[in-house]
Automatic annotation (TrEMBL):
Belongs to the phosphofructokinase type A (PFKA) family. ATP-dependent PFK group I subfamily. Eukaryotic two domain clade "E" sub-subfamily. Belongs to the phosphofructokinase type A (PFKA) family. ATP-dependent PFK group I subfamily. Eukaryotic two domain clade 'E' sub-subfamily. It is an enzyme of class 2 (transferase). The active site is at D169. Its cofactor is Mg(2+). It comes from Oncorhynchus tshawytscha (Chinook salmon). Pathway: Carbohydrate degradation; glycolysis; D-glyceraldehyde 3-phosphate and glycerone phosphate from D-glucose: step 3/4. Allosterically activated by ADP, AMP, or fructose 2,6-bisphosphate, and allosterically inhibited by ATP or citrate. Beta-D-fructose 2,6-bisphosphate binds at residues 463, 520-524, 558, 565-567, 621, 647, 653-656, 723. It catalyses: beta-D-fructose 6-phosphate + ATP = beta-D-fructose 1,6-bisphosphate + ADP + H(+). Residues 1-393 are annotated as: N-terminal catalytic PFK domain 1. This is ATP-dependent 6-phosphofructokinase.
């Protein structure tokens, strides 16, 4: 249900009239920077502010002139799908000097720019904070030198700064994901997937070097922020045999351990080996570990045919992923809101992502923690992680519902983590149908090799619910002595776990820990903001929309009507529309009538008078039983006659197929691992007379954290008729999509990021 009107805070109260905002990209480029620039420009103009491009980063600010150019709504058209940064980025030595910053201040005051949005890494953001701290002194100097008068100094007395982290390295404390990281991961996975085919053909070992310098994911053991990203997550996503990262140097003797692991994999008839090395990898003595050294090691010790591939700047290139476009758009709008709300006492802040929520953090706290990470590494303060092993239990895993890309990665993770925990893992083929038919067999470590990058469901999945087959399912649980269930799937999986839980009074066999992990392209499961498979589907939609828009570049005045999947859930249409830059999106959750359709046609008619002579309209497949895709296509064609022509495209099951995106591989791996660890804990803590009397849970991403929620508690949060949650977080993004498409609308900012402090979460000691 929506919040009561009086609890909402709308951005209409935040006027940008009389304000000027400068936006610049600095340091290394990252895919998604253009989406952030576009969002800042359009949101700034929307609230009545002037927005200026600062070309070539700080260098353009120092040089002034044409490098500081007022932006228009149309000037950021077609930027969403372009990689790199259209406004340019340059490293500027002059800005590091006092004289350079004095020049930059002069050029900003000339245009009354007192609000800066800086998109870059920690160096760029640190420079921006220093600039802000010196601002009043710089104005005094400019007055003394006669370059500006007292009135100009008074009118521009406060400089407000908001940062967005654009870096493929994901090396900044305070945000779960930086702009560009997901796209870089896409490039790595594309290369690895391609290499794996040739490696299998020749039984080769490939050593891949990825970017990331001293950054990745491992310092998450020290601080709760995701570093080590490119190397570690790409290793997770492609099922690499070995990974070497600077934050967690291997102990002495790692060479023998690695070679033994590679040899064992070959003995298990695995035809290839993948070793991923982060740029800057070191051993425990701070000695560099190079790809050439690893190649020589493998060849000399094992005699394997070994090749080295250094990805280099391929990782920075290409079109941004759907995730990066959405992240950058959300952050860009949040940055403008932060600037509008800033006061003299507000510290420079960074707009960050924590879980699925936008937050604002003091810039220098984030920078300080980022530097602390490097200091800890330099001091070789590495913590060892120790895994607990316990008693052995039988755990069954099955897929239920429609296939979703990433399911196989989740199954692989569950099986291998379960085996590591000491359990015997069982695979159930074809969902609950296979369960009652006895299609159950033990699944071992090697059985799931190579599953991570494969789409669909290798186990097989069906929509059959268990209610009519409870006797037979209970019998199979007895036969195989199943102690816990992991169900990976969509709405049918949710219903199935509820039915098994409800039958516990009659069937003692169902009194076992049950965890449901959401996996569906529709992203319609209550209790979770995200589902495995939804990101892959979004990328399929975004890629198709990019190609369709490109096809219209030669043919002006054309509108495309595109139908997406999702059942009654409008997630794919809405978020896909945001990522693709749609002009209108029709969904079930937001009822529309013929007047709305007419209004959209008129909006597109006005758009055709500008330099942007194309339109993109998305429709969810079940948005309205009468206003079908054909109806909307015919209406637009008729009403737009003489102004624009129309084309339609039904995307269909292409949204369900294909290899999983890096995000879905990683998300599936992590969430399944967490589910198995929870099962292990429950089995160890609560084992009584062969059964565990515990609630059946759904593991989902809720705002900032992964949360286990009893399925019975989610019953009241569910619209079972339309198979959607009663409250859906992404509906708050729809006004954002409309604003960026130049519609006048209301935007609830009561849930927008508030300034918080960075907190450190140290790991508990493990015996």
């Amino acid at each position: 249900m929506a919040k009561r009107q009086d609890t909402k805070k709308f951005f209409e109260n935040l006027s940008g009239a009389g304000k000027s905002i400068g936006v610049l990209t600095s340091g290394g480029d990252a895919q998604g920077m253009n989406a952030a620039v576009r969002a800042v420009v359009r949101m700034g103009i929307y609230v009545g502010a002037k927005v200026y491009f600062v070309h070539e980063g700080y260098q353009g600010m120092v040089d002034g002139g044409d490098n500081i150019e007022e932006a228009s709504w149309e000037s950021v058209s077609s930027m969403l799908q372009v990689g790199g940064t259209v406004i340019g980025s340059a490293r500027c030595k002059e800005f590091r000097s006092h004289e350079g910053r004095l020049k930059a201040a002069h050029h900003l005051v000339q245009r009354d720019i007192t609000n800066l949005c800086v998109i870059g890494g920690d160096g760029s953001l640190t420079g921006a904070n220093l600039f802000r701290e010196e601002w009043s002194g710089l104005l005094e100097e400019l007055v003394q030198q006669g370059l500006i008068d007292e009135k100009a100094a008074q009118n521009n007395s406060e400089l407000h700064i908001v940062g967005m982290v654009g870096s493929i390295d994901n090396d900044f404390c305070g945000t779960d994901m930086t702009i560009g990281t997901d796209s870089a991961l896409h490039r790595i996975i594309e290369v690895v997937d391609a290499i794996m085919t040739t490696a299998q053909s020749h039984q080769r070992t490939f050593v891949l070097e990825v970017m990331g310098r001293h950054c990745g994911y491992g310092m998450a053991f020290h601080f709760c922020f995701h570093f080590l990203y490119l190397a570690l997550v790409s290793a997770l996503a492609c099922g690499a045999d070995w990974v070497l990262i600077p934050e967690m140097p291997p102990e002495d003797g790692w060479e023998e351990q690695m070679c033994q692991k590679l040899s064992e994999n070959r003995a298990d008839k695995k035809r290839l080996n993948i070793i991923i090395v982060a740029e800057g990898a070191i051993d425990s003595h701070n000695k560099p570990i190079t790809t050439d050294h690893i190649k020589e090691l493998v060849v000399s010790c094992l005699g394997f045919d070994t090749r080295v591939t250094i990805l280099g700047h391929v990782q920075r290139g290409g079109t941004p992923s759907a995730f990066d476009r959405i992240l950058a758009s959300r952050m860009g709008v949040e940055a403008v809101l932060a600037l509008l709300e800033a006061s003299a006492s507000t510290p420079a802040c960074v707009v960050s992502l924590c879980g699925n929520q936008a937050v604002r953090l003091p810039l220098m706290e984030c920078v300080q923690m980022t530097q602390d990470v490097q200091k800890a590494m330099d001091e070789k303060n590495f913590e060892e992680a120790v895994r607990l092993r316990g008693s052995s239990f039988n755990v069954a895993v099955l897929n239920v519902g429609a296939p979703a890309a990433g399911m196989n990665a989740a199954v692989r993770s569950a099986v291998r983590v379960g085996i590591t925990e000491g359990h015997k893992m069982f695979a159930v083929n074809d969902g609950f149908e296979g369960f009652y038919k006895g299609q159950i067999k033990e699944i071992k470590w090697g059985d799931v090799g190579g599953w991570t990058g494969q789409g669909g469901s290798i186990l097989g999945t069906k929509r059959t619910l268990p209610a009519k087959h409870l006797d037979k399912i209970a019998e199979q649980i007895r036969i195989h002595n199943i102690n816990a269930l992991l169900v990976i799937g969509g709405f049918e999986a949710f219903l199935g776990v509820m039915e098994l839980s409800a039958a516990r009074e009659k069937y003692n066999e169902f009194c076992v820990p049950m965890v449901m992990v959401p996996a569906t392209v529709s992203n319609n499961i209550p209790g979770s903001d995200l589902s495995i498979g939804a990101d892959t589907a979004l990328n399929a939609i975004t890629d198709t929309c990019d190609r369709i828009k490109q096809s219209a570049s030669g043919t002006k005045r054309r509108v495309f009507i595109i139908e997406t999947m999702g059942g009654y859930c409008g997630y794919l249409a809405s978020v896909g529309g945001l990522a693709a830059g749609a002009d209108a999106v029709y969904i079930y959750e937001e009822p529309f009538d013929i007047r709305d359709l007419q209004s959209n046609v008129e909006h597109l008619t006005e758009k055709m008078k500008t330099g942007i002579q194309r339109g993109l309209v998305l429709r969810n497949e079940n948005s309205n039983e009468n206003f079908t895709t054909d109806f909307i296509y015919q209406l637009y064609s008729e009403e737009g006659k003489g102004v624009f022509d129309c084309r339609k495209n039904v995307l269909g099951h292409m949204q369900q197929g294909g290899a999983p995106s890096p995000f879905d591989r990683n998300f599936g791996t992590k969430i399944a691992a967490k589910a198995i660890q929870w099962i292990s804990r429950k089995l160890k803590e609560s084992y009584k007379e062969g059964r565990v009397h515990d609630t059946a849970c759904l593991l989902g991403m809720r705002r900032r954290a992964m949360v286990f929620q009893p399925v019975v508690q989610l019953k009241d949060q569910t619209d079972f008729v339309h198979r959607i949650p009663k409250e859906q977080w992404w509906l708050k993004l729809r006004p954002l999509m409309k604003i960026l498409a130049k519609y006048k609308t209301s935007y609830d900012v009561s849930d927008s990021g508030q300034l918080e402090h960075v907190t450190r979460v140290r790991p508990k000691k493990v015996d």
